[in-house]
Amino acid sequence: MIATASKKTTASVKNFLEALIPQFADGKFKHRSRSLIVIAAAAISAGLLLISSFGYVLRMRRLRSQDGDLHELDANSSASVAGPSNGELLSFSLRSILVAIDNFSEVKQLGEGRYGPVYKGNLPEVQVVAIKKQYKKSLQGVEEFMNELKLIAKLQHQNLVRLLGCCVEQEEKIMIYEYMCNGSLDKLLFCPSKQANLDWSKQFWIIEGIAQGLIYRHKYSRLKVIHRDLKASNILLDEAMNPKISDPIGVGFSIASTPEEIPRNQHTVAKHLFAAITSFVALDSSFKSRPIYFTGESYAGKYVPAIGYYILKKNSQLPASKRVNLAGVAIGNGLTDPITQVATHAVNAYFSGLINEKQKTQLEKLQSEAVVLTKNGSWTKASDARNGLLDLLQTMTGLATLYDFRRLIPYETSFVATFLQHPDVKKSLGVNESMVYEECSDVVGTALHEDVMKSVKYMVEYLVKNSKVLLYQGQCDLRDGVVSTEAWVKKMKWEGIGKFMEAERKVWRVNGELAGYVQKWGSLSHAVVLGAGHLVPTDQAVNSQAMIEDWVLERGVFANEQLEKLSLDFHG
Questions:
Q1: In angstroms, what CA-CA distances link 327 with 50, 222, 308, 348, 518?
Q2: How far apart (Å, rounded) are the C-alpha atoms in residues 165 and 88?
Q3: Where among 395, 411, 427 does a domain terminate?
């Protein structure tokens, strides 16, 4: 192949090689401490966060037995080392595994990765295999584990490490892979005694094999599974130096393997979302020139400013061709500056006629405690104090939900989960059909508990100076509604805040009917949506769509007043 390759092809591959692996540049190795091959996490890696912004987190669908998917092998069973060729999995007994690796003996251990140790073993009448034991602290259950194994087993390519089988017994979750005798690429690259054997022809062979494996996974495989942890240590080499991509079970499909992997602050959230967004933009070259807007509600009052802020900061470090064309962000009923917003609940409920003076005083005491705890950086206690305050407010008012004081029953949110579980929707999102959505995960809630009372107001201030910002609230929301938003907006450190506060609040109509009110100055717009609570699109679908479209296109009450005035002056 190398002998018949044209000079142009060889040069192109060499350029690709040098860009992907700096150590290969000019045929020389430049030792670096960082990972050698790194590909940005795919869109699926942020799916957890995108869904969490609406109160959802991904988990695996219940496993249903399917005949022919698994073949049981006990200690006396035999199987070909090549394993099943049709995507089926072999199931080995724990007894045979323990015998093969001397009861998890350190002598048999090849190494230890992020998700568990790997051992070398001989299974009965089967050639040498690699046996990987998943840590017991993993959040992934047996059913989820088996479902994912079955999916990975269906990926069959000469440049992918083949998953042969598994063992699930006595709380152990074990994977059986084909054994790769030359180990991982990182050990070859960083071992001085081995580097000399890696001439240009072998470099070419390895990089081409990696590329072939990725092309198959990302384009030609019917599953199209994106590898989100590609690096030199996950490239393994067989006896003929053929590179094969290893697929670490438990890291794909937006599943956090352990609680520690769930993002716990907005910076980490933004990094995950940025990886998803850049992957999405890369799907079509025309996306790069199109303006991109981000919208979200409720706790997305943090996610949306976080990703917007991250993009603007990141863009300043990137060449023009790599930047994300952020045009604006829209935040609906958002928890953005909690220390200010938590202090508005009592007065809001009082002047709405929902509590009396005595109850107002009780709530104000709890509000003050939450504010003090926040100022002291006691984040967990501050979040607990806010929860206690809101629980008491709901008890005092007897309302079905604080998200909309008109409702006799809480919002029905199961429709969202039903929609997201539809096969066509999953296909459009690039999510495997085995996924289901769990509403309001306690695990994610616990991970982000300390983040609740942290403010991202400074991010909004930066965004309004460098892009467009729309803040909108449903009129009937008692948690993160109009009063709480206006309280922090007037405190913004932005040179245009004075003019914004003095700007006219205009009546907003859709199809001739009253829809709400809009106040705008420069890049900041604020809309109050009548007849809506916390979930504005649910309550006012048509008006919500009109609001976003008019804001993006700068028309109607969202028009740029300065340009509109110039236009009127020009036309006389």
A1: 19, 35, 9, 33, 20
A2: 8
A3: 411
**Does an H or E element contain 144, and which?**
helix 142-153
- Examine the domain organization and report whether 225 and 272 are in the same domain: no
CATH number at residue 206: 1.10.510.10
Helix (H) or strand (E) holding 518: strand 513-521
Lookup result for tokens 């066509």: 424
| Final residue of a structural domain among 204, 220, 245 | 245
- CA dist 404 and 261 (Å) reads 34
Phi, psi of 472 (to 5 degrees): -135, 150
Record the tokens describing residue 559, joined without a space.
């028009």
Whole domain around residue 129: which residue ranges? 65-245
Residue 498 belongs to some domain of the structure: yes
- Whether 141 is covered by a domain: the verdict is yes
CA nearest to 55, candidates 381, 439, 336, 388: 439
Angstrom distance (rounded) from CA 64 to CA 67: 10
> What is the DSSP secondary-structure string of 439-468?
ES-HHHHHHTGGGTT---HHHHHHHHHHSE
Residue position matching structure tokens 């991010």: 459
Whole-prediction pTM value? 0.60
Q: Divide the 572 residues of the chain into consecutive groups of 10 and give the mean pLDDT of each group.
A: 35 41 39 27 30 30 34 40 54 88 85 76 79 70 68 82 86 87 82 76 91 86 66 85 73 50 85 83 82 93 95 90 91 96 97 96 97 96 96 95 94 82 77 66 82 96 97 97 97 96 97 97 97 96 96 94 52 48
Instruction: Show which residues are catalytic.
Output: 298, 477, 534
Same domain, 327 and 206: no
Contacts of 402 (CB under 8 A, 6+ apart): 390, 393, 394, 477, 478, 479
